[in-house]
Amino acid sequence: MGMLKSSQPKKQIKFRHEAPMHLKQHFVHANLNKSAREKYKLNKRAVQICKGDTVKIMTGSHKGTTGKVTMVNMKKQFIYLDSLKRKNARGKEINIPITASNVSIIELNLSDKYRASKLKLKQVIAPKEEPRKKEVPSSSETTSNVEEVSKELPSNEVQSKELESKEEKSSVITDKNEV
């Protein structure tokens, strides 16, 4: 089942309402702002809206309002912003639904690895630090380390640490003799 090509509004409305979810996801795309296109170096004009994107409303009574997307309802093809709320008759704050075609994306949320790879962008998440390799200390450093440890540990543990350091020194000496 492809996209509908009828010019009759009645058939278009029916198609959008009865479309399967894999086609409805195409209805929640929005234009990228020019500055965002340059920032992310994308050749695409429109991208699917995701939770966490920053958008600006381009048409309607809330024109010019910017905010982060808190929820995307693909079934009803609406998005909800953190900056757009109203009170209902009981006084409870509710989100105002906005049609995805009425907004422009200012900033993308790239914390999702799949989305970043799909758009062929690098992730914004800070890279993890590489584990540091342990260096073999020289014989003078090992004696100073044992002295530092002896201040922190009880006497039984100090003796075991001193024995370990002596064994390491003897193994280093035997290795030098073999060479």
Largest sheet: 7 strands, mixed
As a whole number of angstroms, the C-alpha radius of gyration is: 31 Å
Strand fraction equals: 15-25%
How many separate domains make up the residues? 2
Average the pLDDT over all residues and give the rounded result: 81
Number of helices: 6
Strand order of the largest sheet: 2-1-7-3-4-5-6
Distance between the termini: 76 Å
CATH topology of the largest domain: SH3 type barrels
State the share of residues found in helices, binned by percent: 25-40%
- Helix/strand/pairing category: alpha+beta
Give the overall shape, derived from the CA principal axes. Answer: elongated
Task: Offer a concise description of the structure.
This protein has 179 residues and is an alpha+beta fold.
Account of the protein in words:
With 179 residues, the protein is of the alpha+beta class. The protein has helices spanning 9-18, 21-24, 34-40, 113-118, 139-152, 155-178, and strands spanning 29-32, 46-48, 54-57, 66-73, 78-87, 93-99, 103-107. It has 2 domains: 9-118, SH3 type barrels, CATH 2.30.30.30; 139-178. Helix content is 36%, strand content 23%. Strands 2-1-7-3-4-5-6 form a 7-stranded mixed β-sheet. It is elongated, with a radius of gyration of 31 Å. The termini are far apart.
